[in-house]
Amino acid sequence: MSQRSTPADVSFNLTVGAIAIVAILILIGPVLIVIATSFTTTQALRFPPPGLSLRWYGELFDPVRSAPIHTAALNSVWVAGWATVIGSVLSVLAALAITRVARPSARALEASFLSPLVLPTLSYGLAALMFFSVMGIRPSLNLLIAGHLVVIAPFVFRTTLASLTQLDPALLEASANLGASRFYSFRRITLPLIAPGIAAGAFLAFIASMDNVPVSLFLSTARTSMLPIRMWGMMESTLDVRIAAIAGVLIVATLVLMVVMDRLTGLTRRMSA
Asked: What is each CA distance from 145 to 85, 135, 150, in whole angstroms?
């Protein structure tokens, strides 16, 4: 026999449902407003748009009018790509070393590797600028890669460490008993099993680098302008509608990358299994 819902249960369900709807509106509402604004026919950011047009997307992809934006976007992709690759390699090596050591010092190292996640990025950006200035290192794309690396590496480290903790040690023991070397066991057993965790962390790291404002603000110059800084400058000076078009492109690109990562890592299947 089915149990009848009490007034308290109905009230609880209505409250949770209302909170969920408000949360969804807060998360999705601004995104929809930005996308709708990017199709406006006016010369300024305005919502709701009086008409719909692809004019601003055309100007955004114009190689002459939007050359500074293209340069900033390429710089951001270059920095995010290299920082993600280097951070992934270092994070995987660090996670492998920590999981094999059962000492208290390993836990201290784990906390130190994850500390950039709780460190205010604005403070870190200022500290990095002061440090590199004292060292006599001038701002460049390589310096931006180093600065972003510290901030995004913990994402890969955390997901890789979580994947390693779920790895069955019996698999590695069986591989060793059959005469396989550590490198062979890593290449044929460990790496394929933790690859989804590495890929998920690398995806988060890349997105975090592309969206990083504080570090880019302190470590970039006019020649090494990054896309978030370029968008910020456009908002302060002219409120160019191309800002909304850039946001629309970034939103669509992020959604596409999320679908691709889900196909590669099978995260949805793992959560529903």
From this structure: 10, 17, 9
Identify the CA nearest to 71 among candidates 237, 253, 221, 265: 221
Residue of 5 and 168 predicted with greater confidence? 168
List, for residues 77-89, the tens digit of each pLDDT value: 999 999 999 999 9
**Contact predicate 159/114, CB 8 Å:** no
> Which domains are assigned to the chain?
68-237+245-272 (1.10.3720.10)
Query: Please, how many CA atoms are within 13 Å of residue 41, restricted to the half-sphere of its CB?
Result: 4
User: Is residue 13 predicted with pLDDT exceeding 80?
Assistant: no
- In 108-244, the DSSP E strands lie at none
**Nearest CA-CA partner of 72 in 201, 208, 217:** 217
Owner of token pair 């004292």: 134
